[in-house]
Design a protein that fits this description.
Elements lengths: L42 H5 L11 E6 L8 E7 L6 E6 L11 E4 L2 E4 L16 H10 L6 E7 L7 E8 L2 E2 L3 E4 L9 E5 L6 H17 L3 E6 L10 H11 L12 E2 L12 H6 L9 E4 L4 E5 L9 H13 L5 E5 L15 H10 L4 E3 L6 E3 L3 E2 L2 E2 L5 E4 L22 E3 L3 E7 L3 E8 L4 E8 L4
Parallel strand pairs: 10-11, 11-12, 14-15, 15-16, 16-20
Antiparallel strand pairs: 1-2, 2-6, 3-4, 3-7, 5-6, 7-8, 7-9, 10-22, 13-14, 17-20, 17-21, 18-19, 22-23, 23-24
Length: 451
Amino acid sequence: MKKRSTKLPLMNTNRVSFIGASLSFSLIVAVHAEDITLAKLDVKTLVSKMTPLKGTTPAQWRVVWTGDASREATISWTTAEPGTKHIVHYGAESGGDDKKFALSQTCQSNGAYSIEQPKPQKPKEGESAAEAAKRNSRMKISPAYYHHARIKNLNPDTCYYFVLESDGEQSREFYFRTAPAEGDDFTLIHGGDSRSGHADRCRMNLRIAAQAASETKVLAFAHGGDYIVTGSKWEQWRLWLSQHELTTLKDGRVLPIIPTKGNHDGGKNGLYFEVFDLAEKTERWHTTMLGKDVALVTLDTNSAAGGAQAEWLEAEMRRLRPEVRWLLVQYHRPMYPAVKGPAKHAPIFCPLFDKYNVDIALESDGHCMKRTVPIRDGKKDPSGIVYVGEGGLGVGQRKTSEDRWYINDGGKAGSEHHVIQLDFTPDNMRVRFILMDGSVWDDHMIKVRKR
């Protein structure tokens, strides 16, 4: 009888695999840290090995967290054809070669991604109407279909193995780990702005996987928004979703993604909400509970700060404090930016952050690196909140403004592709900026607040 696994499979941390088996169960490529540097990676070759979006072959897999991460998750994927039966087979034990699992869940939500077809162009000079029609036909974007399986009643701190199936076509076996019921012995990765610089986006996805492979306490990946340039264009989401496969580890481990909406992720067709299985009217902001001791509150800086969002935020903060040990917030536009002007939400959000003693604010949008001094009531204060960011998952980096008081005299700013790694312990949160090559740009410690 197989034993239920509550620990991550052992991995050789001295030989970090940069993914390959994750790209496709039939096309395997191995790229190792000692063989090549990310800066010199042949991204075009790597992209060609991604799971083809063809027929009902499951592709573009992801696990999404927006609620109780210790007991529930949404497992999602994409197919090129609509299919009729989409199901996740899963369990706390590997399905083995036969892919036999104790549990299964039929997808509760299936549909066509909302695609805006390009407007037909008029015949060019010397071109017939039939020739123009043929040219316009070639410009049409192929349809694609999302499938979301909402899994509940999971056990905390447990590895769940799963296989995706659409009309008999199966994926390879993957797995993810649920959050612990209590305690904070884990690590969270945060980063934003993957919208452009596709080669660097691939490299940073591989960096995320490398961090999780070398540091097995990494639990999930929180994305700060601006996944793509134009949120209404499926062709951009399609590329992002395929490249997101690169965050999968060689042994099939998938890091759940905790999504945030950026200013580039809009559009009337609601693709952001279709990709992450969120209700457009009611889930623009949400709280992800990483067990009972760590809460990540996600806000929307594309919606008005006041009114419904402010009311929800105050009620949520009041509910969470002082119950949780670590209270985090993430959103896209920064309150204390190192490049741009502050978000218009700052006069409403920041006083609430101060009132309920947020431990750290995770920001994006600026395309730079930044760690502020601790801030309370708009001033440097040892009891204040540290604001970090501002997005380096592929987008070109900007020069920071050196005259901002909150990044001087103890703060820090710079410009390189990066992720932010948060290591939790009962007494401290260690905050590190990890660059593309794996080096550490900043290493900062935040002490837990008295409750």
